[in-house]
Amino acid sequence: EPVRRVLLLGEGNFSFAASLCGAAGTHVVATCYESEEEVSGRGRAAESIRRLRERGAEVVFSVDCTKLKDYFLPEKREFDCIYFNFPHCGRKAGIVKNRELLAHFFHSSAEVLTEEGEVHVALCNGQGGTPADQPRREWHNSWQIVAVAAGAGFILSNVHPFKAETIHGYKCTGYRSQDKSFCVEGALNHIFTRSMPLLYCKPMICTIELESQKVSFQVPQVLVDKINRGFLELNSNHPVRTVKEKLTAELSQAFPLQNIDDCLSLLHQGHLNGVCHSNIFWIILSPEETPSTEEMSNGLANAVLFSHVDFCRDTYKNGRVNVQEGCHISKQYYLRPSLLPYAQAIIQRGAFLPGTLHVLSGPVFRKCPITPYSMPVFHEMVFVFAVNRGTENSCIQMLVNNIKTSIHSLHQTVSGFKLNINLQEAMSFEKTELNDFAAFESQVSKVQYFICVEIDNSGSCEKGSCVGIISTAHYELVSSELVVVFASLNLDLLAMLICGISDWRMLWTSDTRFLRQFPRGELRLFKSFSLYPPSYVHDVSFWV
Q: Which of 4, 51, 306, 324 has fewest C-beta within 10 Å?
């Protein structure tokens, strides 16, 4: 097993370093700001230094925490953990000076820390300025440690009490080992890890088979990192896939079930009744000519395909596309906003077995205002089955009961909170009461019921808690006595509610720390690895 390298900064009497030294598989490098002569004559410092050296630790003096890479050779710069207990500029240094010290320290730490390393900073009660401080200081009167660390690419991943009394032999000193020590009562240890770098998403070309030929289209910028992520594939451990598989397994106990996921195209053509054009990601392409990836990324394509948002103001009027001179457009497509039209097409083609629950699932795409529970892309799961006319209500209740049982079963393995699942009539809702998922489904089909989930047992369908819809339709099937029942579930919202994920964007993160919390597809209560992120409220915000 590789040896874990630990760096300690700002040691006063080296008693903290001595308490850590000797742990199996750990190499300690203990440092302080003063010279060896200044430190050795104080208290038990000489004894601690001797013990450290006897146990194979390195002791380095006169180390400036803001220039760490200057003190270590390149091959010895990678530390798995950096400790800095009670940093302080000294004397009557104000809050701003101490913030600056922390800012320089974090930037310096980033140069000598391993990719998955941790930075531990212990502060006196109230200094950090986070909700973990009790009592909490005003933001402007704190060291603003989370915001300062973010400037160097770190996030606060954990915070817990600094219990000096449990550290064997530890004695806290004051600034530069002065007699007056820091007050450690209520002190907190803040643990930071690296945040994901903000990546620039290059223009992306997606190639698919459409009408027996390969075509390419440019992915809208907001969806570049969300196309072809493979969350529902066989080798995926993503919680969205786990929710889908568990639901399918439970429902197969009550209904004959058939999956029909493989033949669904990302692009759809045709008119969706009642759907506002501004809610759709339009893709216009020519099957005659498809530009290369290099041409698209260099912006050299001869206006062959572009997104709806790239049209000039006069391009789209009265439901018609007015193509500028030089364009060769033959057909108009959009990224599928729902799987319900596919389900309807399957019925109309006759590829449908009455009495069988047909299941479709995959990502769908819609333009919407982005909020924690409102998403421009999510995984939809659609159930379709035909029942005898007059029995549709009892069959709907049977389907919903099975969905309820499945969701309850999933939730009980994750959390102790009570989960309430209600079937509520669509007529009882105003449009303003619906989340974006429910509002859009109401445009696509004639919704009769909403499936709502409440974790707080309030009994009301809160905004964001509608996870599914039920609708019925009459088609000319084998028998006119049959009615088709459709049910649509938002798998992303379900996964969020079951696992306690407060923002849909976390489902789409490429940060490996997210999926590590769900080993082998096991559903667990999500534990945020970015605590108390800085947030700002302004009169005007510009998003770039």
A: 324
179 shares its domain with 89: yes
User: Residue 204 in contact with residue 217, Cβ under 8 Å?
Assistant: no
* Domain presence at residue 118: yes
Query: SS3 of 126, please?
Result: coil
Q: What's the CATH code of the domain at 173?
A: 3.40.50.150
Per-residue confidence band for 434, with pLDDT thresholds at 50, 70 and 90: low
3-state secondary structure of 483: strand
493: CATH: 3.30.930.10
3-state secondary structure 375-389: CCEEEEEEEEEEEEC
Specify the DSSP element, H or E, that contains 171.
none
Task: Read off the tokens for 90.
Answer: 């000294």
Structural domain of 130: 4-194
Q: Which of 374, 386, 341 is nearest to 360 (CA)?
A: 341
Q: Are 139 and 34 in contact (CB under 8 A)?
A: no
Give residue-wise pLDDT tens across range 256-278.
998 886 678 888 887 776 677 88
Distances (CA, A) of 219 to 96, 339, 437, 449: 45, 19, 22, 34
Residues with Cβ within 8 Å of 282's Cβ and at least 6 positions away in sequence, in order, are: 307, 308, 332, 333, 334
531: in domain:
no
Give me the number of domains the chain comprises. 2
Judge whether 211 lies within some domain. no
| 490 Ramachandran zone, left/alpha/beta (phi>0; psi -120 to 50) | beta
DSSP for residue 76: G
Q: Which residue, of 194, 214, 248, is where some domain finishes?
A: 194
pLDDT by residue (tens digit) across 110-156?
A: 999 999 999 999 999 999 999 999 989 998 899 999 999 999 999 99
For the chain, give the number of residues. 544
Mean pLDDT across the stretch 372-394? 87
> What span, in angstroms and rounded, lies between the C-alpha atoms of 515 and 529?
12
**pLDDT grade for 309, boundaries at 50, 70 and 90:** very low
